[in-house]
Each structure stands twice: as C-alpha cells, then as structure tokens.
Amino acid sequence: MKIPFNTPHFCGTESKYIAEAFENKQFSGDGIFTEKVSVELENIFNAKRVLLTHSCTAALEMCAILLNISPGEEVIMPSFTFVSTANAFVLRGGCPVFVDIDPLTQNIDIEAIEHAISSKTKAIVVVHYAGISCDMERLMMLANTYNIPVIEDAAQAIYSKYNHQPLGSFGDLATVSFHETKNISCGEGGALIINNNKFIERAEIIREKGTNRSAFYRGDVDKYTWVDIGSSFLPGEVSAAFLFAQLQQGCEITNRRMEKWQTYHKYFSCLDPSLVGEAMFVPRYSEHNAHMYYLLCPDLARRSHFISHMRSHGVGCVFHYVPLHSSPAGRKYGLCAGSLSNTKRAGNCLVRLPMGPGVDVVTVLHAVNHYLRL
Ligand SMILES: Cc1ncc(COP(=O)(O)O)c(C=O)c1O
Asked: Is 324 in the pocket of ligand 1 (CB under 6 A)?
C-alpha cells in the first residue's frame, strides 16, 4: 500500500529515553518514567490523578470495578464505539444499554440517554468520537439531575477540548488510549483519569493486583497485602519512556495532524456530498485534535466502491465500528434503546481516510479526483 491507513509516528527521541530506562535499571512499572508521564498527563487533562495503564481497555475495566458494577445493572453508552467500551462492564456482569448517536457528530445523543435511564442505571459512558466533543454541558446537567456517574471514553481525544476545557476532565472518571493508531502512542498503552477524589485510593489498589503496594512504596503503610479485587493494569517502564518522548512533542504532533485535517476539510466541504460523502461536522463548542478524517458516504454500496477504488490506487481507507448492538456479543449481553437509525447509518456509510502527521494528503486527494472522474 503506497499510503497505508495508519503509519506509526516516531519522534526520534524514543530510543534515547528507552536507553535511560535501561540505565535506571527498572523495567517493571511505576518507575521514574511512569511518574514523569503521569504528571504530564495530569497537566494535560487537568486531573486530580492519572494512573498509567497498559491500554485504554484496562482503564475502562478499572472504571467498571471502581463503580462496583454488579450483575443486572445497566450502563448507558453508544452502540457506535469500540468493543472495550461495553466489554469492560459486561465483564462485571453489567448490561450495556445501547443508545443512538447524533447524526452530525456520531457522538451519543443526549436526549436518547434521558429516555434510556431506568432505576437500574449505574453509569453513563460517552465517547468523544474522532476527538470531537460530546455536548458536555448538556450531558453533565442530565447526569447531575439523575445523580448518575459519568465516564468519558476519551480514547481518541487527548488534547481535545469542550469550550476550552480538556476532554477527560468532565466525568468522574475518564480513559485515554496510547495504542499505535492514536495521536500519541507507545504501541499499547492507556491511562485512567480520575477527577473525583473518592476514587483515587481504591484505583491505586485495583491497578496493583488488589494490593496496597502503592501506599507501601510511599511509606504510608509498613507492609503491603491483598486488600481488594484488582488485576495487573500497569505498564512497564520501557513503554512509559517511549510515551514520554511522544508527549514531549504532543503539541507539534497535533499541529501537524491539524494541517492535514484542514487540507482534507477544505477539499471535501466544497464538494457535493453525493459525489463521495458528507464532510465532517465540528460543533462550535469543540476544539478537536485532528485524530481522524472521515466522510459519510450516501450508502453502503457506494462506500464499498470508494474503498476499493482507493485501494486500487494504493490508498488505505477503512470503515469503522460494526455497531455493537448488532454484533453477536452485543445482542447477547446488551439491550437496545430505540431503533438506532443514525448508528446504522454510521456503521454502513462512514469511511476513514489515512491520517497522521506525515500523511501525503496530496496523493490521497489525487486518488479521490480520479474517483470523481469515473
Ligand atoms: C472509543 C474507544 N475506546 C476504547 C478503545 C480501546 O483502546 P486500547 O486499544 O488502548 O485498549 C478504543 C480503541 O481504538 C476506542 O476507539
């Protein structure tokens, strides 16, 4: 493929910091680099505490434990999301209640959340799709009215903002991903962002296999032992060193992605949407991080045609989520609130274009021009 859908970005300083991690002679987690990265993330997310994890999936699983999700309890979330958003709660016996998305942003429909609330509702999980913010003011007002905790799945949303406030800083808890496909990466990685003080102490325990080892290392207790349920959710120092290098260039990476995003947007927002697809929509309240450029094709057949045309020109374009409510596990473990027509449309029509700080947008658009001449 001349232009793959995703090309991992290297800053050039990763190996220098990994060599430092070797010199520190600590490869297990919670060493010097984990500490440096956590402080950096606390600043970015304006968070009370950030705990580095080995994936966003792991951070979501920690959220489900922290909220004591028990069998039969319901968690409202979009169906148009990655499996981990739902799976983390199903692992605790919880029931995902899938609601529809807004057709303009592909983010959870706030009105649909209100219709789905029941006496069994234990949490609301929102996803900031493509790094574009949900309407957080409306969402938090609704959650506060019903006194339901909010989790932001900000897997794609590092550096994004809602009315100048960082995404990931609104919910009681939030999660972020540093998977290879994300703006800032260490291959596999993630973090739990804690905005509500009451979760900090228990989150440390859950992340350390259910032990109070973190408190022991701080000198708060004189021995450590098994005190709660938990698992091994922390990454090693080599991953943290890699991530530190990327975070040091976070603003530069975002700016470079934004230039690519703008070039795509100028092109597609001037084009008749029936030719390839509808351009992305960014609400006024959202400052996004150029995580993704997508189009909404008129239908499934035309999306498939577009993807295979681009492939034949060496350009990797991909569709995104198969809606969870229509997946085998989603049907088994979840419930549907309404007909989810906007979700079905996104599942059938959304196509993602290659994106990254170094992507050759001119060549991508050349292949699109060719498609238009067919
Ligand atoms: C919305 C969302 N949530 C969670 C995840 C899981 O992230 P990770 O691969 O870091 O576990 C992803 C990954 O793409 C995602 O897009």
From this structure: no
- Find the 116 Cα to ligand 1 centroid distance in Å: 24
Closest atom of ligand 1 relative to the 84 alpha carbon: 4
> Is the CB of residue 53 below 6 angstroms from any atom belonging to ligand 1?
no
3-state secondary structure of 190: strand
Domains annotated for the chain, with CATH where assigned, are 14-248 (3.40.640.10), 250-372 (3.90.1150.10)
Q: Is the pLDDT of residue 340 over 90?
A: yes
C-alpha 86/C-alpha 88 separation (Å) is: 6
Q: Which structure tokens are listed for 245?
A: 């290098």
Which segment of 68-72, 167-171, 222-226 scores lowest on mean pLDDT? 222-226
How far apart are alpha carbons 28 and 356 in whole angstroms?
A: 31
Which helix (H) or strand (E) is 161 found in, with range?
A: strand 161-162
CB 176 within 8 A of CB 158: yes
Beta-bridged to residue 95, according to DSSP, are 74
pLDDT surpasses 90 at 69:
yes
Q: Which residues pair with 278 in a beta bridge?
A: 296
List, for residues 206-237, the tens digit of each pLDDT value: 999 999 999 998 999 998 999 999 999 999 99
